[in-house]
Every structure is written in C-alpha cells, then in structure tokens.
Amino acid sequence: MSTLKKPKTSKTKVADDLLNAGSGKTITQPNVNDDKLRSITEMRQTTNGETTMALEDEQRLRKAFVDKDWNEIKIADSWQIFKVMAEFVEGFEKMSKIGPCVSIFGSARTKPENPYYQMAEEIAAKLVRHGYGVITGGGPGIMEAGNKGARSEGGKSVGLNIELPFEQTHNIYIDQDKCINFDYFFVRKVMFVKYAQAFVGMPGGFGTLDELFEAMTLIQTKKISRFPIVLVGSAYWNGLFQWIKDVMLTEEHNISAEDLNLVQIVDDASEAVKIIDDFYHKYLLSPNF
Known about the structure:
Elements: H1 10-20, H2 40-45, H3 52-64, H4 70-95, E1 101-105, H5 115-129, E2 133-136, H6 142-152, E3 157-162, E4 179-182, H7 185-194, E5 198-201, H8 206-220, E6 229-232, H9 234-251, E7 264-266, H10 269-282
Parallel strand pairs: 1-2, 1-5, 2-3, 3-4, 5-6, 6-7
Helix pairs in contact: 5-6, 5-10
C-alpha cells in the first residue's frame, strides 16, 4: 500500500538532517526563505495592474520582509558603513575648501516665472556681492535659482545633489568642482549645516521643512553655534509659525518662548542679506574670515 509523501519544509529538513548525521548521507542546509518571495520576478508576478511607483513600493516592502541569515546582514551592513564613510570623506574634502557660504533651501518644483524663484536668484547674487558663496541642494526650482544667482556674480556655487527616483537632477549653474552627489540624506544635511554661515529658507515642501527644523533643533539644543536662519515669504511661513506659537508653545508648552527667535521672516531680498550681514558685523566678523 503506497503512502503519500508530505513535501518537506525547513523544519522537516532539519529533523531529517539530525537523523542522518553520521550516516554518510549528504546533509543539505535548510532554506530559511521557504514560502517567501525571493526575486524581483516573483514580486512582479504578484502585483498585476498597479502603477510603476506602487509596484516599486510593493517590491521594496516585500523584499524587506524576506528572511536574511546573520552573515548576509553583516555583509550588507559592512558595505553600507563604507558607503557612508566615502560620502563623508568626499564631502569634507570638497567642502572644507569653499570658504564662507550661505545655504539656500526651497522647493524643487518652483518654476522660473514664480516670484520666489526670482527672489532666490536675487538673494544669491546679493550674497555673492557681500562676499559669501552659495550652497543649495543642487536640483531644479529654488535650488537652481540660488546657484544661478551665485554664478551670475562669479561667486562660489555649490550643489549638494541627492539621488532620487523623481524630481532631482543637478542644475547647470553649479561649479563643476563643487557638485557633490549623495545617496544618504543625513550625510547631505551634515554638509548643509557644517559649512554654512547662515540659512535662507524659501517656500518649499517636506524636504525644506526637514532641513529647516534640523537647523533649528541643532541650535536649540546647542549642538551647533547660533547663526542666522532667514525665511523668505511671510504669506507662506506665517501660518506655520502662528501654529507653533499657539499650539506648541501656548497650549502644549513643548518649546520655550525664546525658541521663536531662532528664525526671522522677511519679504525682501535686501532685508534677508542685511540680517546675515548685521549678525556677523555684531561680532566683528566678515565673510572673509
């Protein structure tokens, strides 16, 4: 009488291997990824009819949950450490030679006909005339305007570009030797903060807010020295800071009253540059230190 054989799983393979130990039979290692998606092809077959972006997100999520053994994890982490170190080394080497600069943040989606684009270009040009270089995120929109303004006055034009699946390609106004590409946002943000004498924040999205609040947090916690943070466009920024005042400060007491003084909001290019100049003149410093 024949009996049906059950398909072997990882657990039954382990049990058989223990029984066969010392018997001369070949022992095979269990596959820890049984019944899991293991390849991009398999992942694609399970997600029919979805958009490309949704498909990629699905693949990324599924891949993250595929089991890895300890050796695979150690190898992947080791290589990642070297990649992070390489980005820091390249960034430090190039940025340490640029001299005093101001970082300009803002949306990658702002078009050249937008008044904020034109104001960013004007601010960058004025900063160069006052002795500063300009650092941007290296992409289009406000970042392009900042680099364009710096280039127009013959100043240093630095671009810290980030590899993204959309939006970001470096603009043509960055100095050739000052265009640095990053994979990691946190390495890029270190360069923004470490080598800037001031921040100018133009209207932008989540990335702009991330960079703004990173700088504010570092100053608030005294991890870095205080320097000017100037936000341009009261119509854009006032609502946010009114909420910070009403809710974060007054209702919830999550910040101190003096934290509101970390930024200044202006509507004029000359005023933005004057705030930076006045800050350094107060301490008898100039951009040529």
